[in-house]
Write a structure and sequence with these properties.
The protein contains five helices and no strands. The chain is an all-alpha fold.
C-alpha cells in the first residue's frame, strides 16, 4: 500500500511537472495570445470612442448651423419686422429641432437647448410687441447654446 501512495504522489508531482513544462514550451504562444487579446480590446475601445466623438462633432456642427439660422430669423423678426407666419413657424421648428437633437451631443447641451425652448416660449409674444428685453433674453440664450456647443467641440481634442 505504501508503494501505491508513493506512486500517487509521483503522479501528482509528475502532472505538475508536465504542466510546467508545457507552459514553458508554449510561453511565447501564451504571451502572443495575451498581447493579441489586449490589442483587440484596446482597438475596440478606441473605435467606440472615435465613433462617439464623431457623433458629437457631427451633431454639434449641425446644431451650430441651426443656431446661426435661428439667430438670423430672430433678428429679422425683431429688427426687420418680419413677423409673418412663415418666420414664426420656421423659428418654432428650429427651436424644437435644437431641443430634440441636443441630447445627442451632451447633457449640458440638452440643458441649454431646453432653456432656449423655454425662453423662446415665454418671450416670443413680448418680442413681437417690440420688447427689447425679450429679444435680448432670446438672443442671450441662443448665444449660450452656441457657447456650449463650441465648448463641446473643443473638449473633443
Amino acid at each position: 500500500m505504501a508503494a501505491a501512495d508513493n506512486h500517487g504522489d509521483d503522479a501528482g508531482g509528475g502532472t505538475r511537472s508536465v504542466v510546467l513544462t508545457s507552459v514553458k514550451r508554449n510561453l511565447v504562444a501564451i504571451i502572443s495570445l495575451v498581447v493579441a487579446l489586449s490589442g483587440l480590446g484596446y482597438n475596440t475601445w478606441r473605435n467606440e470612442a472615435t465613433e462617439a466623438h464623431r457623433n458629437v462633432r457631427q451633431g454639434a456642427f449641425a446644431m451650430l448651423e441651426q443656431v446661426g439660422q435661428l439667430q438670423q430669423l430672430v433678428d429679422q423678426r425683431f429688427y426687420a419686422g418680419k413677423k409673418d407666419d412663415v418666420n414664426r413657424i420656421t423659428c418654432w421648428g428650429k427651436v424644437t429641432l435644437l431641443r430634440d437633437t441636443a441630447p445627442l451631443v451632451s447633457g449640458a447641451t440638452q440643458q441649454q437647448a431646453e432653456r432656449l425652448f423655454q425662453v423662446w416660449s415665454e418671450q416670443l409674444e413680448a418680442m413681437d410687441e417690440g420688447d427689447a428685453a425679450a429679444e435680448k433674453k432670446i438672443s442671450d440664450q441662443i448665444a449660450a447654446v452656441r457657447k456650449q456647443l463650441v465648448a463641446e467641440l473643443k473638449a473633443l481634442r
